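Feature request, filed as a ticket because there's no other form

It would be nice if the structure record came with a short human-readable summary line next to the tokens. Right now we just get the raw output. Example of a typical job, pasted below so the devs can see what we mean:
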Amino acid sequence: MPPFFWKLIQKRKVLCAVVALAGLVFSFALMLLARSKLEMSKQIEAVYDNLIVTCSVTNLTGTQEDSLELPNWVINLFFTGVTVQGNPKPEESFDTYFRDIRAKTTARCVLNGTKMRLCGLTAAEGAVSLPEVTWRTGYDLSVLDGDGLYCLVPAGIQGDTIQAQMESVEGEKFTKELQVAGTHTGDVACVYCPWIFGLDMVEKTLGHRRADSIGGIFVDNRKMGVFWETWGSRYFVEPTREGTPVKWEKSPVYDTYPYALTIYDDVLRSTTEQLERNQQLFTAASRLLLLAAFGVGFVLNFLSLRNRSQELKLQYILGVRLTGILSGALLEQGLLCLTGITVAMVGFLLLFQTLFGISILMVFWCAELAGTILAYAITMRKCFLETNVQGE
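Raw output as currently delivered:
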């Protein structure tokens, strides 16, 4: 402990109070910024966890996601349990990245002498919203999830069952009886049925599987980039305004990619980017505060030295080395600043029941001491002290 340490503290009560107050204000502000940054991080995580991001197979411009006549290999990318025929052959189903796969397919049929469309939908309602439905007792949207012979008919069609007449690719006519689960107010020429049944009817009537639209909801929004880099970009391109064809060098079937995969993540991106910008502002403010702490430490000590020539001379006469003078100054500033930090932590804990940014408080404390060291390094040179002694 340098000589006269406590006496010097008592003699400079105002200055010492200013140093402690500066420590309190700076540290409280730094903890507030740390808390705000953490809140921004939580909000970003909440956005990734809760915001629904969908994707759909589209044309190359991203303007059409229905009536695309998607071939079997596209269907197989999104659904498991189906043998892939021909190329390109996927190594893994997309369903590991998606939930609620939305798909629609359409077969031609005749109902009561009228040409109709038999639209197979997944329970996620396909890429096109299901019109308003009036469900009959005991039925709900889950009927589209299975392979049962159920259907939704246009409002006005009576009866508990319908007879859908179709013709196979070989020219053989056949009839399927479907249980009416409800009525809809949409297209009067459309009968909705489960996706699996509709896909089977498409294969029987056309000779191959085909989908009008396919899309899904990402299971984990954080994995969108990984999904695209690993799988999506192997089979699709990103949509562009011009829809310029892109050469598909690895495909033995296609010269260019026939479809794009449109990911509707605009809301996610704009929201997270704004929150990340806020985080960057808080980080910049924290750095400015640390720089200010360094400056305050330097200025306070520099001004203090101008009024302490007698004290410094006395210490030098008593044989205290320059390192001892600096040690005393560091001890004084460190304790005073630490007092302010402690008071700030107690107040912050009372207000928010927790502490934030403990590590940055240590950086702040070190910045304050660094300012002290710089002030003494500039002012307390041996020739300065000897001049003071000779001037007495």
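Something like this underneath would help us a lot:
Residues 266 and 308 are 63 Å apart (CA to CA).
The longest helix spans residues 266-306.
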